[in-house]
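Suppose you are handed a protein chain with no further information: no name, no annotation, nothing but its sequence. What can you learn? This example shows the usual starting point.
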Amino acid sequence: MQVKELRSTLSQLSTEPWVISKEELTFTEEILGSGAYGEVRIALFRGLKVAAKCLHKVIISDYNLRIFSREMTIASQLRHPNLLLFIGATTQGRPPIILTELMATSLRAELSQHPLSNQQIKSIAMDVACGLNYLHQWKPHPIIHRDVSSPNILLKPSVANSWEAKVSDYGSVNSIQQISHYSIAPGNPAYTAPEARFPDDQTAKMDVYSFGVLLFEMSLQEQPEMSVAGRAEQAKMVQWDTLAQIIEECIAHLPKDRLTIARVMEKLKPIPV
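A reasonable first move is to predict its three-dimensional structure. Written in structure tokens, the prediction is:
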């Protein structure tokens, strides 16, 4: 019965516009990164180089495919210049594969090699905030990213020695966490808000906290501490006073004391660099 249900679900999903056949993919040998859920490789799709996220740890079942399908359908509807472009996903066989546009590098990789100028920090911060604000304004319910971190902020060169930043993994974070057997607290623990381990307390303010951590990571060019107290101490080291004030209001311990992303954008715009 389970096999018949799974085949029925696969048949229904095959009509979704975002579904891509694995036969259309040609994988290269280049691996862009790997993590708890699988790896990201460069692949060719209809003559285009794309990033292919192979979800090796995801268990294929009728229930899991329905969750995956729901999240991919939402991802296919999201359109914003500061969200990584979702191209499509596979549903047949193992592992499921999510295709996105290919970017030049990640914020984490860039910070490991070069310091950012104040202009670059402000530009990247605004791009990320714009992308998150779009997610948080989604109707009928806000979309919470839950894993805002420097590896998930992807970059491509822009004008005047700057970067264009895009938020990645917005369409797969929720589904992978639901259908995998990982800890209940979502995201990278070095960026995670104090309330993240309590599902009933998870709101868009979690992303605001992670964004604040991202700001001091860019300013200090060092990875965030694993503890909440350690991150609070790092934030105090930021020398750019106006940015330091925004960071303080983003990483407040209580969600109610944090800014909204929309308010963050208002505060970032007039900052001189």
